Amino acid sequence: MPDQRREFGLKAEDYAVSFLTKKGYLILERNYRTRFAEIDIIAQQGDFLVFIEVKARKNMRKGFPKEAVGFSKQKKICLAAEYYLREKKLSNVRARFDVVAILENSNGLEVELINNAFNAV
What we know:
The chain is of the alpha+beta class. The chain is built from 2 helices and 5 strands, in the order αβββαββ. It has one domain (3-118): Trna Endonuclease, Chain: A, domain 1. 31% of the residues lie in helices and 40% in strands.
């Protein structure tokens, strides 16, 4: 990944963490990696363990950021989430998958939080 894209991605993730914290999420992990995929953020919100994908774009040339979380990406995130639950020996946990979509525009960063963006696949 070119340095500018990586830098923008890190900036977007940091922004997402700050945004989520203000919304009452307790951040447990960042950049949790498995052989299946990486989960950008794992957090607790109320009774839910939340697996969060952050998608950021600098423009709309490739569409809305949230559109980049297609079926293939969802499947990878779900596999990684299952691995996390097994690794941490968590069972009977209420879990969900959220997406934080970030678009850079002339006003700065525009953030959209999609709760329960997809179901386990």
